[in-house]
Amino acid sequence: MEFLILSAAAGGAGGSAFFVQLFPLLLIFVVFYLFLIRPQQKRAKEHEAKINAVQKNDEVVTAGGLMGKVTKVADDYVEVEIAPNVRVKAVKSTIANVQSRSAKAAND
Question: Could you give the maximum distance between any two Cα atoms of the chain, in Å?
Answer without folding.
Answer: 95
